[in-house]
Amino acid sequence: MPTDHANHYRFGYSRDEMERLENQHRVWAEDNRRFLARACFGEGATLVDLGCGPGYTTLDLARAVGPQGRVIAVDRDGERSLPLLKQRVEAAGFSNVETREADLEVFDLPEGSVDGVYGRWVLMYLPERAAEALTGRVARWLRPGGVCALAEFCNYRDIHIHPPSAHLPMIAQALMRAVAADRGCNPEIGNVLPGLLQRAGLHVELRVVTKAVRATTPEWRWPDAVFREHLPGLVDEGYLTREVLDAFFADWDERSREPDAVFFASPVMEVVGRRS
Which of 17, 92, 186, 223 has its CA 20 to 30 A from that of 155? Predict the structure, then answer.
C-alpha cells in the first residue's frame, strides 16, 4: 500500500536525495539563472525562498540581494535540509539568510512585507487546494512592485526517451500517481499556475522551458538517479509492477550506453507574477 507522505517531502531527506538535489541544481543552473534574471530581484530586497531544501538557490538569492537585503528560507525539513543550508550559508560568509522551519500549507507572512518570492518544484508536493491558497497568500505578501517567480512541471506525462521505450509512459504515470497519492497533489500544477496568480491580482508573464540531456554525459546522472533511487519504492507502494520496472530498466540501461540517446524531461512552466 502507498506510504503516508503527509508530513514530509515525497522523496524523503536521505543523504542520497540531498546529493541528487545538488546534481539536479547543477543541471538546471543556467535555466535558473535566466529565470532569476527575469524576476529582477534587486539589491537590498527582502525575498522568500519557498521550500528551500538544502538551499542551492538560496545562496543565489542571497548574492542577488547583497548584504543590505534579506532572504527568508522556508522548509518543513528542520532535521537535514535546513542544517545543511545553514552550513552552506556560514561557509559562504553570508549574514543575510534567515531560516524558518514551517509547513507551507499554513506558513504566512504579514501583508506587503516582502519584495519577492521564489519557489521551484514546490507547489506540486502540496494538496492542490493548499497550493492555490498559498499562491493567494504569496500575492498578499508582496509590496507594490513586488515579484514572485514560481516554476512547476506541466505536462509531466510528456517525459520521453529517444530511442523510445514502450515502458516509459507507465513509469511517468506511476510517478504522477505517487506524487498525487491520496492528498490531492497535482504533479502538473504548472498548467494552472498562471491562472492562479492572475486571479490573485498579479500581472503574469510565463515561459515554458524544457531540458534534454544526452547519454554518456555527466547530465545523464540526473534522470538516472531519479529512476534508480525512487522507482523501486513505487513497486513496494503498489504504484508500479516489478515486471514493468524490470523491462524499463533493461531499456534504460541500453539507452545509457548509446551516445546518441537523449532524455527529454517534463516541460517546466516558469511564471513571473508582478504586483502593480
Answer: 17
Contact assessment for residue 79 and residue 15, using Cβ atoms and an 8 Å cutoff: no
Please list the residues that pair with 49 across neighbouring strands: 73, 118
Amino acid at 244: V
State residue 13's pLDDT score: 67
Alpha-carbon distance values, 71 to 59, 60, 248 (Å): 9, 10, 42
Mean pLDDT of 4-14: 57
Between CA 249 and CA 252 the distance in angstroms is 5
Q: Is the peptide bond before 163 cis (omega within 30 degrees of 0)?
A: yes
On whether the CB atoms of residues 136 and 231 are closer than 8 A, the answer is no
Give the pLDDT confidence of 63-94 residue by residue, as tens digits: 999 999 999 999 999 999 999 999 999 999 99
Question: How many structural domains is the chain composed of?
Answer: 1
d(CA 200, CA 202): 6
Angle at 14 between CA 13 and CA 20, to 5 degrees: 90
Q: Is residue 162 part of a domain?
A: yes
We report the CATH number of the domain holding residue 127 as 3.40.50.150
Rounded alpha-carbon distances, angstroms, from residue 78 to 13, 49, 74, 108, 214: 10, 15, 10, 18, 36
Residue ranges making up the domain that contains 121 = 15-274
Residue type (1 letter), 13: Y
Q: At what angle are helices 221-236 and 168-180 packed, to 10 degrees?
A: 70
